[in-house]
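Re: Re: token formats

Sure, here are both.
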Amino acid sequence: MKYYIASCLFTARFPDVSLAIQHYIEKRRDIEIVRCCIPNFRVKPNEERIPDGAAKAAWKALPVSAALKPGDCVYALCHNCTNIVEEQNPGVFVPSLWELIDQDEAFVYPDYAGLKATVQDCWRSRERSKEQAAVRSILKKMHIEYVEMPDNHGKTAFCGSTLYREQPAKNARYAPKHYVEQAAGKFQPHSQEEQIAIMRDYCRQYKTDVVVCYCHYCLEGLLQGGVDGRHLAQMILPGLLQSPRSAT
């Protein structure tokens, strides 16, 4: 079976984009969409965080989660979802949404006409080289001239200001390898003012006006840092709306 996790946090922050992604997935007919990576986790609170409108109505119609089995394939754009699914379900494959789109020969990419942008990798997906490659491939297909960070790919230690405050208990509980064993020195409490100052200091190193990320936590940090941060999902939205049904 193939699944796509819509992500409660991403849907709450980008309801229209999330709904467009769900419509794109629905066209394939071979991927089931579910809400969450954890069965029956905070179902009502996660539903209530979605703004009223079409996205919320669609969210209510989705299954909460899937009964995953070895050999299943789970696509996601939330790195917490990916990491939790991987650790809780041995034998389940966890490619990213970007890999799915990059492999879709029918996808209609928007044209950014040589826009120069820095690509910012995420600490939560630092070991996922296929996802990182797909992101860069998509940027090229959108005619974006991207600049690499010195600490890119597996070297990145950036995930916005979330690494400078306590993380939700569920992350450490359901994905201890990623969020306990590999997180030494991270998720230490800082004040809001300290978090913003750290982000502003970090963002001074960018050489382009636009910075593209593929994590909603990273985007939060970029905006706190005062740069023109853009989530890849926002940039690819026109293609999601135009692309025909993909080959299954």
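Second one below.
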Amino acid sequence: MQSKISQELNMKFPPIALIKSDEKPEDAIGPKGEKGGCVMSFVAQTIAKRKTTYFGREHISCGGINVGFGWGSGFANEDMIDFQATFLSLGVDSAPDREAYEERLNHMPKHSQEMFRHGERIYCDFETAKESIKNRPVYDEGQYVIFKGLENLKDGEIPESVVFTVNPIELTAIIQINTSFRLDGTYILTPQASACQTIGCFTFKESDSDNPKPVLGPIDFAGRSKMKHFIPNEYLTLSMPWKLFLKLEEVSKNSVLQTDLWKKFL
């Protein structure tokens, strides 16, 4: 399948599809060994090199990916949530129990200790981080997520979602198409979330909506750092449920893309 929008925009990176599966794909690149590192390095390879990649529950190696791809919350108890909230805010400076947090860091690899001690600083304080973590959309289904170029979809294969990778002008055009049929005041979502969560659980949540919206990302530098080898820094992802993608494809046939004004940007 080819995207009409992508063809009209002459996109450097055509959209990719995210597919949930209970079976490990045989013809795809996946993590080696039990742990998989950051999934965004695999997503980036699909975007830039058009290689089909996958990631499974057995490859989880960080605190955000469980919920990101609909594999439960990832937290067995309140202490685990507190640890994650501390890391995502100001590290030891925001720890409700600083001594206990530092003790846990002592059992981590040295290359990780400093990052966890300083905190990722996605949130301004522990309380905000913890509340946000508890409000993430949680699903628990499927064993694997598969990423493939939209052009590589098999007959009858229905993706969970579609991910565009866009520069500022391409983003402007898609936003205008996306807003052309709406009357409410929120047209695009930018959740404070990891890169895998924006293309995963927050997009899955929009699939459940009667009025789905696309999700912009990645706004976390940790996720971006795993993609920059393949994708220039000025690019963003715009993820959307399959049903919204089909609607935008239809709407785009009579849109700003057929105007002389748009042609000035080609």
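The first helix runs from residue 4 to 9. The chain has a mean pLDDT of 94.
- S.
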